[in-house]
Automatic annotation (TrEMBL):
Molecular function per GO: ATP binding; homoserine kinase activity
Keywords: Amino-acid biosynthesis, ATP-binding, Cytoplasm, Kinase, Nucleotide-binding, Threonine biosynthesis, Transferase
Gene: thrB
Species whose genome carries this gene: Siphonobacter aquaeclarae
A GO biological-process term: threonine biosynthetic process
Lineage of the organism: Bacteria, Pseudomonadati, Bacteroidota, Cytophagia, Cytophagales
Gene3D superfamilies attached to this UniProt entry: 3.30.230.10, GHMP kinase, C-terminal domain
Major subcellular site: cytoplasm
Reaction(s) catalysed (UniProt annotation): L-homoserine + ATP = O-phospho-L-homoserine + ADP + H(+)
This protein's name: Homoserine kinase
Length: 300
C-alpha cells in the first residue's frame, strides 16, 4: 500500500501579517511517497532535489518529526518507508520545510484511513516548524495544508485558523534570488518589542488586508501591503531589496515585500500578465546587484 502527495510552497507574513498570514501557490512544492512496511518505525529511503543536505535520520528530518508526532498522538506504530522529492529550494522563504511536513502528515493520515480531519493535522505539521526554526509558527503549514489565503487569529491556548476569501483574479509573483537566509537567524535579528505607533499602523494594515481581500478591493489590498515592523529589519539580509521592491511597484504590482523570512520576495498583482511583467522587472533588479533569480507566477 502506498500513497503520493504534493504539498505547495507558501508565502508567509504577506507584508503586515508576521506569523499570522500566509497563502499557498500552485507551484513549486514538495512531493512525498509513503509505503507501509512490516517492521515498525519511519525509514527514509531517499530524498531528491536537496543536494544531499537534508538528514535521512527520522529524528532530525522535519517531515519525519511531524509524522512521528502524529503517530504518537494516534498511538500507532505502523512502519512507513518514505521517498521525498524536494521540488523547491531550501532556505528560500517559500516554506520548504512546511511543505515537507504537510505532505508527510497528510499522506500518513490518508494511508492510515484518515483517523484525523485535515484541520486536526495542523499541530503535527507545526512540530516540524518548531524543529526547523525554533518556533511552531503556522503561517506556512496552515496555507500549505488548507490551500488559499489563511489567517491565524490565535496560537494560544489553541490554534485558531481562518480561511480568507480572495478575489477571483489575484496573482502572486515570487522571485527567488540565489542566496540563502536561515529562518532561525532571520527570527533572531528581530527586535522583541515594538512601538505603540508601529503596532497601530500594522493592525490597521492587517484589518485593511482582510477587508480588501474579502471585498475584492484592490486599492485597499495595495494600501495594506505594508510592513513597518519586520521588513525594515530583515531588508538588510537581501541585497538589492529596495531596488527590487521599487521595480515591482513600477511594473504595476499592488505591493511587494519579503516572502516569509526571505530571501525570496513576493508581489501581488491584479492579473497574470502584470504578475509576469512584475517578475521580470524584479529579476532585472536582482541582476543589477549581480544576483541570479528564479520567477514563479501563480494564482491565489
Ligand atoms: N513567519 C515566519 C517568519 C515565516 O517570518 O519568520 C518563516 O518561516
Amino acid at each position: 500500500e502506498s500513497i503520493k502527495v504534493f504539498a505547495p510552497a507558501t508565502v508567509a507574513n504577506v507584508a503586515c501579517g508576521f506569523d499570522i498570514f500566509g497563502f499557498a501557490v500552485d507551484n513549486p512544492g514538495d512531493e512525498i511517497i509513503l509505503r507501509k512496511k512490516v517492521s515498525p518505525g519511519l525509514e527514509i529511503l531517499k530524498i531528491e532535489g536537496d543536494e544531499g543536505r537534508l538528514p535521512l535520520d527520522p529524528e532530525r528530518n522535519t517531515a519525519c518529526i511531524s509524522m512521528l508526532a502524529y503517530l504518537r498522538h494516534i498511538n500507532a506504530n505502523q512502519g512507513i518507508s518514505i521517498e521525498l522529492k524536494k521540488k523547491m529550494p531550501l532556505g528560500s522563504g517559500l516554506g520548504s520545510s512546511a511543505a515537507s511536513s504537510v505532505a508527510g502528515v497528510y499522506a500518513l493520515n490518508e494511508l492510515l484511513g484518515r483517523p484525523l480531519t485535515q484541520l486536526e493535522l495542523l499541530p503535527f505539521a507545526m512540530e516540524g516548524e518548531r524543529f526547523a526554526s525554533g518556533t511552531a509558527h503556522a503561517d506556512n503549514v496552515a496555507p500549505s495544508l488548507l490551500g488559499g489565503f489563511v489567517a491565524i487569529r490565535s496560537y494560544d491556548p489553541k490554534i485558531d485558523v481562518i480561511k480568507i476569501d480572495t478575489p477571483a483574479e489575484l496573482f502572486a509573483t515570487i522571485v527567488h534570488p540565489q542566496i540563502e537566509v536561515n529562518t532561525r537567524d532571520a527570527r533572531n535579528i528581530l527586535r522583541k518589542e515594538t512601538s505603540l505607533k508601529n503596532t497601530i499602523t500594522q493592525m490597521g494594515n492587517v484589518a485593511g488586508m482582510v477587508a480588501g481581500l474579502m471585498k475584492g478591493d484592490y486599492g485597499l489590498i495595495s494600501r495594506s501591503l505594508v510592513d513597518v515592523i519586520i521588513e525594515p529589519v530583515r531588508a538588510i539580509l537581501i541585497p538589492g531589496f529596495t531596488e527590487v521592491k521599487q521595480a515591482a511597484i513600477e511594473a504595476g504590482a499592488l505591493g511587494c515585500s519579503i516572502s516569509g523570512a526571505g530571501p525570496s520576495m513576493f508581489a501581488l498583482s491584479k492579473d497574470r500578465d502584470t504578475a509576469k511583467k512584475v517578475g521580470e522587472a524584479m529579476q532585472r533588479a536582482f541582476a543589477g546587484v549581480q544576483i541570479d533569480s528564479e520567477i514563479y507566477v501563480s494564482g491565489i
